[in-house]
Design a protein that fits this description.
With 87 residues, this protein is mostly helical. Helices cover 43% and strands 0% of the residues. The chain is built from two helices and no strands. InterPro entries: FAD/NAD-bd_sf.
Amino acid sequence: MQVQPGTRRGGRRGRHLPGFPNLFLLSGPNTALGHGGSQFTIIELQMRYVAALVTAMVERDLAVLEVREDVSETYRREVDAAHEQMI
């Protein structure tokens, strides 16, 4: 996978990137811990989320799951706005 330098691909909830169907990220964009806690817990919760998505895909006979660009961009803007309010 190659993403052009300077391309803004913020991802949706740190797990999906538009243009990359069926790609599920763990510890993707905007998922780093900024406080005490365990990365193991975060990854375990992300795996549960991915497993639920794959289960839903199988149950609904879906071959492709892809986040829409507009949904990803809206989420990125919300995260960026929240980050501007932080120290």
